[in-house]
Amino acid sequence: MGFGKNNVLPGNHFRKDWQRRVKTWFDQPGRKLRRRNARKAKAATLGVRPLTLLRPAVRGQTVRYNTKIREGRGFTLGELKEAGISRKTALGLGIVVDHRRRNSSVEGKTINIERLKAYKERLVVFPRKAGKPKKGDSSPDDLQAPTTRQTLPLPPPAVPEQPRKITEEEREFNAYKTLRNNRAETRFEGVRKIRAAKKEEEEAAKKK
């Protein structure tokens, strides 16, 4: 077969020893079983410690995902302070701390503070020495209570509102008009202040 025009000459490599370069994965089922047994052994050595660390509930980024709630990297220092937990204590109680995160909304901060308080109420701290409990350790009655290793579930993204009748005030309310008026007031606030100050100066000059 000839080659026409000024085209690229084909350089097909059909004689490479590809079987030497194939990576097989026949030990996948065995590896899966080994990892599962390792997880079981690790869980047994942890005792009654929670299976996973406690993380905050945060909103997803961008308009597309901000209606969903997911686990964040760690709690802020402000959230820990409001819940009455120090930074050093949190690390020992299985609470992840993220000093870089900031609280941008009151609602998000409140959810995480309640999450920390609920975790603190459910937490059972065993003393290092059975006969010498320290400050912060659980009472003997709490130690005898049944325990669970499941972490706190994430809160619902939105609290559903019960169906009700629309009031006359809500029916007459025009959301679009209100938003546009507030936008215009914010936009022209500085200009209107300058105009009002100038008018007062002119009136004061006329009186003189």
Automatic annotation (TrEMBL):
A biological process term (GO) from this entry: translation
GO terms of molecular function: RNA binding; structural constituent of ribosome
Family: Belongs to the eukaryotic ribosomal protein eL13 family.
PROSITE patterns: RIBOSOMAL_L13E
Key words, A-Z: Ribonucleoprotein, Ribosomal protein
Domain of life: Eukaryota
HAMAP family per record: Ribosomal_eL13
Name recorded for this polypeptide: 60S ribosomal protein L13
Biased composition (Basic and acidic residues): 162-174
GO cellular component labels: cytosolic large ribosomal subunit
Lineage, opening ranks: Eukaryota, Fungi, Dikarya, Basidiomycota, Agaricomycotina
InterPro entries: Ribosomal_eL13, Ribosomal_eL13_CS
Pfam families (UniProt xref): Ribosomal_L13e
Low complexity compositional bias, start-end: 143-152
Residues passing through the membrane, by range: none
Region feature (Disordered): 127-178
Naturally occurring in which organism (per UniProt): Russula ochroleuca
